[in-house]
Amino acid sequence: MGLHKTEYKGLLGWIDARMPTLMLEYKKHMAEYYAPKNFNFWYFFGSFALVVLVIQIVTGIFLAMHYKPDARFAFESVEYIMRDVPGGWFIRYMHSTGASFFFIVVYMHMFRGLLYGSYRKPRELVWIFGCLIFLCLMGEAFFGYLLPWGQMSFWGAQVIVNLFGAIPLIGPDLAIWIRGDYVVSDATLNRFFSFHVIAIPLVLLGLVVAHILALHDVGSNNPDGVEIKDKLDPQTGRPLDGIPFHPYYSVHDTFGLSVFLLAFFAIMFLAPELGGYFLEWNNFIPADPLTTPPHIAPVWYFTPYYSVLRATTEDFMWVLAAGVAAYAILLYLTVQRPAAKYSILIAALVVVALMIGGPLKLDPKFWGVVLMGLSVLIFFALPWIDQAPVKSIRYRPFWHLLLLVVFVLVFFILGFLGTQQPTPGFTYLAQACTLLYFAFFLLMPWWSRAGEFRPVPDRVVFSAH
Amino acid sequence: MASEAAPGPIEDDRRSALISTCVVAGVGTVAAATPFVLSFQPSERAKAAGAPVEADVGSIAPGEMKTFEWQGKPVWVLHRTPEMLESIKRADDRVNDPKSERTAPGYPATPKYAKNEYRSIKPELLVVIGICTHLGCSPRGPFGPGSNPQLGGDQGFVCPCHGSTFDLAGRVFKNKPAPDNLPVPPYKFLSDTVVLIGDDSKA
Amino acid sequence: MKKLLVCLMLAAGALWGAAAAAAEGIHMDPFPDERLKDLASLQRGARLFANYCLTCHSASLMRWNRLEDIGLQDKQIKDFLIFGTQKVGDVMAVSMRPADAKAWFGKAPPDLSVIARARTSFEYRGPDYLFTFLRGFYRDAGSPTGWNNVVSANVAMPHVLWERQGPRETTIERVVHTEKAASKIVTVLDHAGLASTSTTPLTGHPEESLEISFKPVDALRARQFDSDVADLVGYLVFMTDPSARTRVLIGVWVLLYVGLFCVVAWWLNRAYWKDVR
Description:
The complex is a heterotrimer of chains A (465), B (203) and C (277). Chain A is an all-alpha fold and 465 residues long. Chain A has helices at residues 10-18, 21-31, 45-63, 74-83, 88-116, 124-146, 151-164, 171-179, 186-218, 245-270, 303-311, 314-334, 338-356, 364-377, 382-385, 398-419, 424-442, 444-447, and strands at 34-36, 242-244. Chain B is an alpha+beta fold and 203 residues long. Chain C is an alpha+beta fold and 277 residues long. Chain C has 9 helices and 8 strands. In chain C, the strands form 3 sheets. Chain C has a 4-stranded antiparallel sheet with strand order 7-6-5-8. The two termini of chain C are 30 Å apart. The mean pLDDT of chain C is 88. Classes of the chains: A mainly alpha (465), B alpha+beta (203), C alpha+beta (277). Chains in contact: A-B, A-C, B-C. The interface between A and C is large, with 50 and 47 residues.
């Protein structure tokens, strides 16, 4: 008859007989998904990210009922929402707070990956989907930021689109194609609205589903880096160190969420602008294509990469060229195959020529864009550049943790510098930090293998609570 | 070892905790949903656009009609001549609801000051919303006697969409698609020549 | 590990301090925040705003009836604040056309709906800026409008509140140095804006500085004026974010509720995790 034999009763039984997938998937991903029992603080942020995604979508839907994506009306429509729409201020502040919190949560989530080697085999694909989500998130934030049509919105978009104009040969035409006009205008606003409201959210949802499915297929990592599937219960076949996600982690994450919401609502209700970092002051001035505000900086979550862009000056190109040459030599000495050896040398020669080689030289403006792009894209490479024999920081030499702390510090310093005016002193600091940032990744194949590693236990380290 | 639910006090504790959490979460969910639901209500801008309108009726000559806009709807102010008032009396037995007593969901009941022979505060000034009570078109008129075949010898208004006809007090004639008389909006006289449409408070 | 963290925090503090010191700027007089809780002050500010500012500046995102939030009734708003035919549900638009304004003043007067936030920066708060700006006009016969301003030199806006402020004498002390010598230039502007300057050479390498001080003729009137401006700026702050008070009040309750939810969720978590060994 086509009906599946069901163990459930009532309405659930009726549905299960016709769509067994529902309960099968529920069991696979919740009630019988065995996650390691030793998850700690760093493991909350994945579920927080999902919650913030839902918050942004729901608040976004309601904002779109009142917002006008027209350069003449956009700015006032946002204030209309704040003042004239009942409950409008609540929805707007929730969306703006959520945007910044999305990045806080995602950065913490990524940091967990660095701490415990969550991107290592067999979870490389989970990591790649995650990096793609990160790229989409940056795009979503960028397109969304134009919508209030304030001074920061306008000039931020103008600068970023002009970055694409820095690409040799096709740049200027590409920039016009992206904008739909010669400067950022109503045409740009309307298409960015479409990207922000439907195009990227659809892609994001697809990627999030892929990210979670890929994770559930291989199983979660944990703070000890121990593969729990290696030690199964002989009778049940379930991981000895695993507990079903539901109810243990649904309940655990509920508690975590309550603390998260405390922080979220504290900011949303008591300090939604957060000193001008969550809602920028300049954005309360309507967009004026004739006047650039004296201090323009991207929103806080983009500032580290912006620092890298600004650090790439004419003089710095020499340092970078030396760095490329040195790295090429290091690779040459390390790789075995002659074909690889020689292609590395040739590639390095070409790059150095394009950096500092007289008539062939490309503008530092272009290299700044390249470096900024690489500073984000390099995260994709982590599964392959991290070659430590153990996954988790807990069993690595102490100085590996120090390097990680230095990396975090460098990230914060670059972020801070991005909010400031580029004085000569700050520029040197940004350049030093840029070198450290890239060195952390590019030298990882070597440093991740060095030092004395501690023995990784068989079973996870867990104390009952 | 993966645990199953244990019987006894642990289960009771879990159940109590679960119920408490659900109740508290439920309260929070309702509270959080409130601004979203409220945001559907008319905004201050919509309410401002629907504010009462002052209409200068002193310049309307006898026999003439002027249309004012209130809440996006046409409000007719017709200065009726004695002859027009006569035609209303004559139509008493041919209109559906001569005393304007009908009420219906969604149809604003006729205010007390319009529950009279001429459906108005001052007999010579008709104030009605010019929207047919059938499906919302705006009738045409006022037509004098014999000038419109659908009215025959009567005077009044004719709706172009489905042919409903109304007399010069806005009352719908019998056997027409429209069920109700043209609605009378709340209104009051601020002076002899100024009517405030949309507000009939005593204050 | 702890030592490391302490070192890092000190370094962070030093960086932040360096950045703050690098940010030069005009000293802004602090706006008395407690005025924001005083409804009577906000109402006086609304009146000053309607009388003095709304002739040139619009506030086209603010509705008249929003003033109910500071305790005014529709009748009061209509009778005392709205001039002309605007209704109480209308926005505070003005009839001056931007093109005309540009021709007359050189620049269209900005809309003031969100001015307290628009004038905030990382260096100073918007209310402090507005408070200093509105009290910072001084008579200067050498400028195009006859007035100048400590915050915004050669500003196109005339001193609309001059009658309330009353006359005062301005002293500008400037320390400048060229490659070879340093000097202190003191300019005194009288009530008519006429300047008399004296220059004193200085030894050493003093830092460049600029200080402007005032001597009002009528000190009592000047103090009353300061209070009036505080009322006005308080109103501007209210107008920038009218829902602020409601938001904070609701926020306190929300946080209490979430605190309760934290407790209940912690209990739930413990109830389940008790048996995980």
